[in-house]
Write a structure and sequence with these properties.
By secondary structure, this protein is α/β, with parallel strands linked by helices. The protein folds into two domains: about 5-200, 2-enoyl-CoA Hydratase, Chain A, domain 1 (Alpha-Beta Complex); about 205-250, Lyase 2-enoyl-coa Hydratase, Chain  A, domain 2 (Orthogonal Bundle). The protein is built from eleven helices and ten strands. Strands 1-2-3-5-7-10 form a six-stranded mixed beta sheet, with helices on both faces. Strand 2 (about 15-20), helix 1 and strand 3 form a beta-alpha-beta unit. The radius of gyration is 19 Å and the shape is globular.
Protein backbone atom coordinates (compact mmCIF):
# COMPACT_ATOMS: atom_id res chain seq x y z
CA UNK A 1 0.00 0.00 0.00
CA UNK A 2 0.97 3.65 -0.26
CA UNK A 3 3.85 4.93 1.89
CA UNK A 4 1.65 7.94 2.66
CA UNK A 5 0.15 5.86 5.48
CA UNK A 6 2.32 4.07 8.06
CA UNK A 7 0.88 1.23 10.12
CA UNK A 8 2.74 -0.21 13.09
CA UNK A 9 1.65 -2.92 15.50
CA UNK A 10 2.32 -3.29 19.20
CA UNK A 11 0.62 -6.39 20.54
CA UNK A 12 -3.07 -5.97 19.66
CA UNK A 13 -2.89 -2.21 19.07
CA UNK A 14 -2.38 -0.82 15.56
CA UNK A 15 -1.13 2.74 15.11
CA UNK A 16 -2.10 4.34 11.82
CA UNK A 17 0.00 7.42 11.05
CA UNK A 18 -0.63 9.89 8.26
CA UNK A 19 2.75 10.24 6.60
CA UNK A 20 2.92 13.40 4.56
CA UNK A 21 4.62 15.67 7.09
CA UNK A 22 5.96 18.14 4.53
CA UNK A 23 2.32 19.01 3.72
CA UNK A 24 1.08 18.89 7.34
CA UNK A 25 -0.44 15.53 6.49
CA UNK A 26 -3.00 17.11 4.17
CA UNK A 27 -4.50 14.31 2.11
CA UNK A 28 -4.68 13.95 -1.64
CA UNK A 29 -6.63 11.17 -3.34
CA UNK A 30 -3.85 8.59 -3.03
CA UNK A 31 -3.38 9.23 0.66
CA UNK A 32 -7.03 9.20 1.71
CA UNK A 33 -7.73 6.11 -0.41
CA UNK A 34 -4.83 4.34 1.31
CA UNK A 35 -6.18 5.38 4.72
CA UNK A 36 -9.63 3.99 3.92
CA UNK A 37 -8.09 0.76 2.63
CA UNK A 38 -5.99 0.30 5.78
CA UNK A 39 -8.97 0.99 8.04
CA UNK A 40 -11.06 -1.55 6.16
CA UNK A 41 -8.35 -4.17 6.55
CA UNK A 42 -7.70 -3.46 10.22
CA UNK A 43 -11.40 -3.48 11.02
CA UNK A 44 -11.61 -7.15 10.03
CA UNK A 45 -8.19 -8.14 11.45
CA UNK A 46 -8.89 -10.34 14.48
CA UNK A 47 -5.40 -9.68 15.82
CA UNK A 48 -6.10 -5.94 16.15
CA UNK A 49 -8.33 -4.96 19.06
CA UNK A 50 -7.77 -1.20 19.11
CA UNK A 51 -6.48 1.55 16.83
CA UNK A 52 -4.61 4.82 17.25
CA UNK A 53 -4.83 7.45 14.52
CA UNK A 54 -2.12 10.11 14.44
CA UNK A 55 0.14 12.08 12.13
CA UNK A 56 3.88 12.09 11.54
CA UNK A 57 5.71 15.38 11.96
CA UNK A 58 4.25 18.54 13.46
CA UNK A 59 0.60 18.07 12.42
CA UNK A 60 -2.20 15.61 13.00
CA UNK A 61 -3.85 16.41 9.68
CA UNK A 62 -4.24 19.62 7.72
CA UNK A 63 -7.33 18.32 5.91
CA UNK A 64 -7.75 17.96 2.19
CA UNK A 65 -4.89 19.14 0.02
CA UNK A 66 -6.38 22.25 -1.60
CA UNK A 67 -3.46 22.62 -4.03
CA UNK A 68 -4.13 19.10 -5.27
CA UNK A 69 -7.88 19.75 -5.45
CA UNK A 70 -7.57 22.93 -7.50
CA UNK A 71 -5.05 21.34 -9.85
CA UNK A 72 -6.96 18.08 -10.27
CA UNK A 73 -9.66 19.29 -12.62
CA UNK A 74 -11.91 22.12 -13.70
CA UNK A 75 -14.26 22.89 -12.13
CA UNK A 76 -12.76 22.26 -8.70
CA UNK A 77 -16.00 20.69 -7.49
CA UNK A 78 -15.14 17.53 -9.43
CA UNK A 79 -11.99 16.98 -7.39
CA UNK A 80 -13.82 17.50 -4.10
CA UNK A 81 -16.52 15.07 -5.23
CA UNK A 82 -13.86 12.42 -5.84
CA UNK A 83 -11.84 13.21 -2.71
CA UNK A 84 -14.86 13.30 -0.39
CA UNK A 85 -15.99 9.86 -1.55
CA UNK A 86 -12.81 8.24 -0.24
CA UNK A 87 -12.65 10.49 2.81
CA UNK A 88 -16.18 9.53 3.78
CA UNK A 89 -15.35 5.85 3.25
CA UNK A 90 -12.61 6.24 5.88
CA UNK A 91 -15.01 8.02 8.25
CA UNK A 92 -17.61 5.27 7.92
CA UNK A 93 -15.00 2.59 8.63
CA UNK A 94 -14.05 4.37 11.86
CA UNK A 95 -17.65 4.72 13.00
CA UNK A 96 -18.70 1.20 11.99
CA UNK A 97 -15.80 -0.87 13.32
CA UNK A 98 -16.54 -2.40 16.70
CA UNK A 99 -13.05 -1.56 17.94
CA UNK A 100 -12.03 1.56 19.87
CA UNK A 101 -10.30 4.21 17.76
CA UNK A 102 -8.29 6.89 19.59
CA UNK A 103 -7.07 10.04 17.84
CA UNK A 104 -3.67 11.16 19.13
CA UNK A 105 -3.75 14.82 18.11
CA UNK A 106 -0.08 15.72 18.06
CA UNK A 107 -0.45 19.04 16.23
CA UNK A 108 -2.91 21.03 14.19
CA UNK A 109 -6.10 19.25 13.14
CA UNK A 110 -7.78 21.45 10.56
CA UNK A 111 -10.44 21.06 7.89
CA UNK A 112 -10.81 17.38 7.10
CA UNK A 113 -8.34 16.67 9.89
CA UNK A 114 -10.77 18.28 12.33
CA UNK A 115 -13.63 16.09 11.06
CA UNK A 116 -11.37 13.03 11.09
CA UNK A 117 -10.50 13.58 14.74
CA UNK A 118 -14.17 14.08 15.67
CA UNK A 119 -15.05 10.77 13.98
CA UNK A 120 -12.79 8.83 16.35
CA UNK A 121 -14.20 7.39 19.56
CA UNK A 122 -11.78 9.26 21.80
CA UNK A 123 -9.41 12.18 21.26
CA UNK A 124 -6.20 12.92 23.15
CA UNK A 125 -4.87 16.36 22.29
CA UNK A 126 -1.41 17.70 23.07
CA UNK A 127 -1.28 20.99 24.96
CA UNK A 128 0.07 23.09 22.09
CA UNK A 129 -2.09 21.48 19.39
CA UNK A 130 -4.86 23.43 17.68
CA UNK A 131 -8.26 22.44 16.31
CA UNK A 132 -9.75 24.48 13.50
CA UNK A 133 -12.61 23.69 11.15
CA UNK A 134 -11.04 25.87 8.41
CA UNK A 135 -13.56 25.08 5.68
CA UNK A 136 -15.56 28.29 5.88
CA UNK A 137 -12.46 30.48 5.83
CA UNK A 138 -11.75 28.99 2.39
CA UNK A 139 -15.29 29.43 1.08
CA UNK A 140 -16.16 25.77 1.62
CA UNK A 141 -18.46 23.88 3.98
CA UNK A 142 -17.71 21.11 6.46
CA UNK A 143 -17.59 17.47 5.34
CA UNK A 144 -16.28 14.23 6.82
CA UNK A 145 -19.31 13.97 9.07
CA UNK A 146 -18.34 17.14 10.91
CA UNK A 147 -21.81 18.64 10.60
CA UNK A 148 -23.13 15.47 12.26
CA UNK A 149 -20.62 15.02 15.06
CA UNK A 150 -19.88 18.64 15.96
CA UNK A 151 -23.38 19.78 17.07
CA UNK A 152 -23.83 16.55 18.98
CA UNK A 153 -20.67 17.28 20.94
CA UNK A 154 -21.04 20.99 21.61
CA UNK A 155 -24.65 21.86 20.77
CA UNK A 156 -26.11 23.57 17.71
CA UNK A 157 -25.38 27.16 18.74
CA UNK A 158 -21.70 26.55 19.47
CA UNK A 159 -21.29 24.39 16.38
CA UNK A 160 -22.63 27.24 14.25
CA UNK A 161 -20.28 29.65 16.03
CA UNK A 162 -17.33 27.38 15.24
CA UNK A 163 -18.43 27.13 11.61
CA UNK A 164 -19.12 30.84 11.16
CA UNK A 165 -16.11 32.42 12.85
CA UNK A 166 -13.51 29.65 12.47
CA UNK A 167 -11.44 30.71 15.49
CA UNK A 168 -8.58 28.36 16.43
CA UNK A 169 -9.50 26.13 19.37
CA UNK A 170 -6.72 25.55 21.89
CA UNK A 171 -6.47 22.35 23.92
CA UNK A 172 -7.88 23.85 27.13
CA UNK A 173 -10.95 25.17 25.36
CA UNK A 174 -11.36 21.95 23.39
CA UNK A 175 -11.43 19.98 26.65
CA UNK A 176 -13.92 22.38 28.26
CA UNK A 177 -16.22 22.15 25.24
CA UNK A 178 -16.06 18.35 25.13
CA UNK A 179 -14.29 18.20 21.78
CA UNK A 180 -11.47 16.09 23.23
CA UNK A 181 -11.35 13.41 25.87
CA UNK A 182 -8.03 14.31 27.49
CA UNK A 183 -5.13 16.73 27.13
CA UNK A 184 -1.58 15.38 27.17
CA UNK A 185 1.82 17.02 27.39
CA UNK A 186 3.46 17.83 24.07
CA UNK A 187 4.98 14.70 22.58
CA UNK A 188 2.96 12.41 24.87
CA UNK A 189 -0.28 11.89 22.91
CA UNK A 190 0.73 8.50 21.48
CA UNK A 191 1.75 7.15 24.88
CA UNK A 192 -1.47 8.49 26.41
CA UNK A 193 -3.48 6.84 23.63
CA UNK A 194 -1.73 3.52 24.23
CA UNK A 195 -2.46 3.77 27.96
CA UNK A 196 -6.11 4.53 27.26
CA UNK A 197 -6.42 1.57 24.91
CA UNK A 198 -4.73 -0.71 27.43
CA UNK A 199 -7.51 0.11 29.89
CA UNK A 200 -10.21 -0.40 27.26
CA UNK A 201 -8.78 -3.68 26.04
CA UNK A 202 -8.88 -5.11 29.54
CA UNK A 203 -12.66 -4.80 29.34
CA UNK A 204 -15.14 -6.71 27.19
CA UNK A 205 -14.58 -6.08 23.48
CA UNK A 206 -18.07 -7.41 22.76
CA UNK A 207 -19.62 -4.94 25.18
CA UNK A 208 -17.68 -2.01 23.73
CA UNK A 209 -18.52 -2.92 20.15
CA UNK A 210 -22.23 -3.12 20.78
CA UNK A 211 -22.25 0.02 22.93
CA UNK A 212 -20.48 1.96 20.16
CA UNK A 213 -22.91 0.70 17.53
CA UNK A 214 -25.99 1.44 19.61
CA UNK A 215 -24.88 4.95 20.52
CA UNK A 216 -23.91 5.73 16.93
CA UNK A 217 -27.18 4.42 15.51
CA UNK A 218 -29.31 6.13 18.16
CA UNK A 219 -29.31 9.41 16.23
CA UNK A 220 -30.97 7.79 13.23
CA UNK A 221 -33.66 5.58 14.77
CA UNK A 222 -36.96 6.01 16.52
CA UNK A 223 -37.21 5.37 20.25
CA UNK A 224 -39.09 2.11 19.76
CA UNK A 225 -36.61 0.87 17.14
CA UNK A 226 -33.72 1.74 19.45
CA UNK A 227 -35.29 -0.22 22.28
CA UNK A 228 -35.55 -3.28 20.04
CA UNK A 229 -31.93 -2.88 18.94
CA UNK A 230 -30.88 -2.64 22.59
CA UNK A 231 -32.76 -5.83 23.44
CA UNK A 232 -31.20 -7.74 20.53
CA UNK A 233 -27.71 -6.51 21.43
CA UNK A 234 -28.21 -7.34 25.11
CA UNK A 235 -29.17 -10.91 24.23
CA UNK A 236 -26.10 -11.31 22.03
CA UNK A 237 -23.84 -9.92 24.73
CA UNK A 238 -25.35 -12.17 27.40
CA UNK A 239 -24.89 -15.26 25.23
CA UNK A 240 -21.29 -14.37 24.32
CA UNK A 241 -18.42 -15.89 26.37
CA UNK A 242 -17.48 -12.43 27.65
CA UNK A 243 -21.05 -11.86 28.82
CA UNK A 244 -21.14 -15.21 30.57
CA UNK A 245 -17.82 -14.41 32.26
CA UNK A 246 -19.06 -10.99 33.35
CA UNK A 247 -22.24 -12.43 34.87
CA UNK A 248 -20.34 -15.21 36.61
CA UNK A 249 -17.86 -12.72 38.05
CA UNK A 250 -20.70 -10.57 39.38
CA UNK A 251 -22.35 -13.51 41.10
CA UNK A 252 -19.02 -14.73 42.49
CA UNK A 253 -18.08 -11.20 43.62
CA UNK A 254 -14.80 -11.12 41.71
CA UNK A 255 -13.28 -9.10 38.89
CA UNK A 256 -14.09 -10.53 35.45
CA UNK A 257 -11.28 -11.87 33.27
CA UNK A 258 -11.95 -11.15 29.62
CA UNK A 259 -9.71 -13.08 27.26
CA UNK A 260 -8.20 -11.12 24.32
Amino acid sequence: MSELIEVTRKASIATVALNRPQAYNAFNLEMITALADHLTRLSSDAGVRGLILSGNGKAFCGGGDLKWAVGFSEPAGRSFHTLAAQFHRAIVEIRRMKKPVVAAINGVAAGGGFSLALACDFRIMEKSAILRQSYTSNGLCIDGGGTFTLPRMVGLARALEIAAFDDPIASKQALEWGLVTRVADDGASLHAAESMLALLLAKSAQSFGWSKKLLTDAFNTSFEAQLESERDALVQCADHPEGREGLAAFLEKRKPKFEP
